[in-house]
Amino acid sequence: MTMKWRSRKGAVLLAVVAALAVPGTATAQAGQGDQAARRGHTAATGPGVRHAGPQSLGQPASALKLKEWAKAQRTADRLRKQKPPAIRPLKGGKLRPPSVTRPRKAADASALVLYDTAGPYGFLGELYGMATANLAGHFGAVTAKPVQQYAAGETEQHTATIYIGSTYYGGTVPDAIPDAFYADVAATAKPVVWMNDNIWTLAGKIGVPAFTRKYGWDPTRSSFEPVGNVTQVEYKNEPLTRTIPAGGDGGILRPAITDPAVVTTLATAHDTSTTPATTFPWAIKSSNLTYLGEIPYTYTNETDRLIAWHDLLFDALAPDTPTRHRALLRLEDISPASDPADLMAAAQYLAAQNIPYAFQVIPVYTDPNGVYNDGVPETITLAQRPQVVDALKYMVANGGRIVAHGYTHQYQNIQNPYTGVTGDDFEFFRAHINATNSVVLDGPVAEDSVAWASQRITTGKALYEPAGLPAPTIWTTPHYAGSAPTYEAVKQSYAARLERSLYFAGQLSGAPIDGQRYIGQYFPYPVRDIGGATVLPENLGNYEPEAQNNNAGRLPADIVRAARYNLVVRDGFASTFYHPYFGTGPLAEIVTGIRDLGYTFVDPASLIP
Rounded to whole angstroms, what are the CA distances from 569 to 269, 307, 325, 520? Predict the structure, then answer.
């Protein structure tokens, strides 16, 4: 009997620090998946979910205190303007005159990433440091550490240095930045990127007149106020979005430019709290110093100003990179319960269009409580569904690349968060639905360990070849949510992950990993992440025609729009995924729209080093 099974595509984090979790508080970014009838039964009641969407701005976990951080930054900046702090100048510190550095290509670079750990919000620094180190991993070697551990001369040992100012030093939080770092920033001719706080201290340390002569702006007269309501950041003529919840905006530093002739505005913020909108620089460059007026990892989505940062990294680490635009497509949530007719329709369309693609397979379908089988538990393997296997073999022979998508894509026989059925639920993470109909991530499963995850991963991988299918070399974590041990176990069995991922406090510092404090991140290009894994990009989200779980629907035009914005990334990707049960109509719109923008679809395996 033909089955019509559709997964509830799971809630997951984007690159949103707001989604760091403590049990019962962190709202994950959920969407919709639209259950269809299966074995003659109607769809289960209740909303489905999806990986991500344009309105996926989950509220911060209470332990993160992001709104408190924003308020503290605004208050500290106000006090600094009212009573400028006394800054002891560097002894013998001198600015190096502007110079030209040798162009470089991606993969040849070495990045030094420095982050703050001091103060009541110091834990955020490691999370931002991880996100930056992951992106820098596209370009070559990365050293990431707290800024207070900086040793004199390190800027000269790397292609570029990136400092992420997340702790506003002053008042009760003494400056943790070593004078050696201030001095080396002043002396180096190599690229330096400075984000957010404490740039005024750099100016004071080397002398404000000397700073303004070289860089053409005065940080001591620059301020995060007025905060306003910046809803757009224009970069390379594209209106990238910026959506911050009420009370969560720490502001963007508005640079006081003294010599426009030496300052290049790289991106422009649009403050819509005024009529007409007020514009000011969001990112500027002068000499070897690039400055971003905020840390762009919070409250992001597929069209966000984060895209500008993805491209600006090339200026610092690989400015000689030629422009090219590639695309990835994957078919999602294929299991033994999938309808082979749906699979064949999608595969034949893509073959006719000569589109290489990935397709994810869950090797075992299970409904342990009989939710979709009249209360009778049911488990189906690939060996029991030869028509599905035949469709998968057709895919392999006609441009498809098989990707493992978990073992059962669900956890035990409990609601996690929906039904306990394959495709509906998380496999390596716990989740629930709260009273406001949002999916909440609760942290790793009770059994969480490398050994436990490895057992599931290797058991699932062993099922492909007996079914006559090639063993996959690429993995996607179910619902994009796994613990640090899960990712380590995946790395032992697979050459790469194709997904968005979670990164946990402690992974950089060497402290015990905090499985309930993490940042989710998506990538615009392949990276070697802080765990040493190759992670392939998925940055456009997926097609979902109906709104669910407090997220808007997502249509082909939305995906194509995000792809258009990502054209500003000079060697970036447009990577999306699609559920075959939606038919080939929307799929054709997405493929055509992305290809018409100038992207070339490629086999994801071609991106693995």
Answer: 18, 7, 8, 20
Check residue 486 and give its pLDDT: 98
Residue 518 and residue 16: Cα distance in Å, rounded?
10
pLDDT tens for 512-571 read 998 878 899 999 999 999 999 999 999 999 999 998 888 889 999 999 999 999 999 999
Q: Are 504 and 11 in contact (CB under 8 A)?
A: no
**Strand, helix or coil for residue 171:** coil
Residue 299 gets the label, from left (phi > 0), alpha (psi -120 to 50) or beta, of left
Contact yes or no for 12/54 (Cβ under 8 A): no
d(CA 523, CA 310): 8
| Cα 457 to Cα 154: distance, rounded to the nearest angstrom | 41
Cα(first)–Cα(last) distance of the chain, in Å?
A: 43
- β strands within 445-492, DSSP E: 474-475
Residue 600 main-chain phi, psi, to 5 deg? -115, 120
Which three-class secondary structure state does DSSP give residue 113?
A: strand
Q: Give the pLDDT score at 265.
A: 98
Measured in whole angstroms, the distance separating CA 4 from the mean position of its chain's CA atoms is: 32
- Output the pLDDT for position 91: 80
Tokens of 167: 């702790």
**C-beta separation of 48 from 57 below 8 A:** no
Residues of the chain whose pLDDT is less than 50? 1-5, 10-60, 99-101, 103
Q: Note the helical H segments in 416-474.
A: 450-461
Report the C-alpha gap between 61 and 468 in whole angstroms. 46
- CB half-sphere exposure, 55, CA atoms < 13 A: 13
Distance of alpha carbon 170 from alpha carbon 132, whole angstroms: 25
User: What's the angle, vertex CA 225, arms to CA 224 and CA 228, rounded to 5?
Assistant: 105
Say what the pLDDT of residue 539 is.
97
Q: What are the strands, taking DSSP E only, across 277-361?
A: 278-286, 289-292, 326-334, 357-361
Angstrom distance (rounded) from CA 271 to CA 253: 12
Q: Which residues pair with 331 in a beta bridge?
A: 359, 578
Q: For residue 159, what are the CA distances in angstroms to 143, 190, 288, 309, 532?
A: 11, 7, 12, 17, 20
**pLDDT reported for residue 440:** 86
- Amino acid at position 117, single letter: T
> Across the strands, what pairs with 573?
326
Rounded Cα distance, 569 and 154, in Å: 28
Cα-based distances in Å from 256 to 245, 465, 523: 27, 63, 33
The backbone torsions φ and ψ at residue 454, rounded to the nearest 5 degrees and listed phi first, read -60, -40
* Torsion of the alpha carbons at 335, 338, 341 and 347, rounded to the nearest 10: -30
Give the start-end residues of each E strand in 98-139. Answer: 109-115
Tell me the per-residue pLDDT of 312-343, one tens digit each, with 9 for 90 and over.
999 999 999 999 999 999 999 999 999 999 99
The residue type found at 496 is A
Q: Helix or strand or coil: residue 104?
A: coil
Judge contact between 51 and 9, C-beta under 8 A.
yes
Q: What are phi and psi of 25, to 5 degrees?
A: -125, -25
DSSP reduced 3-state for 341: helix
Radius of gyration of the chain (CA): 24
Separation CA 151–CA 184 (nearest Å): 10
Distance CA 178, CA 164 (A): 14
Phi and psi of 401, rounded to 5°?
-120, 115
Count of CB atoms situated within 10 Å of the CB of 90: 18
